[in-house]
Amino acid sequence: MAHHFEDFAPGQVFTSQARTITETDVVTFAGWSWDTNPVHTDAESAREGRFGERIAHGVLGLSVAMGLASRIGVFEECSIALLGVDGWRFRRPLRIGATVRCRVEILETRPTSRGDAGVLRRRFTLLDQDGEVLQDGEIGLLVSRRPAG
């Protein structure tokens, strides 16, 4: 069923399927982002560092959270534009091998001033397999209204 602005209300919570962060994810992300910091790419150096092992890029977690949220199935057909990422926090390291899911809570809904679309203020929370919060923040989305008729 297609969702529209009118189908969302503050307090609704949607949870994605799970996905495991892989070695390939980290290597590929390092390659296309040019972020080759040793904490992500050098096992020996990372072993002696703060986390005791290589960890995934923080922004990889944000990207995965966005992808997981899109697979929930309620935002795709009504999405017009991403409005911004606010207050994103990296709470714990994203470890290679972690299985993560994204929880999306609707915080606020409001129609646009023109009235032809709506704005969803959403809190994204990236959780690991133990339910620990790895990352979180708000992501605004412009969505379509239900067609007349």
Automatic annotation (TrEMBL):
InterPro entries: HotDog_dom_sf (IPR029069), MaoC-like_dom (IPR002539), MCH/BMMD (IPR052342). Residues 10-111 form the MaoC-like domain. It comes from the Bacteria. Belongs to the enoyl-CoA hydratase/isomerase family. This is Acyl dehydratase. It comes from Geodermatophilus tzadiensis.
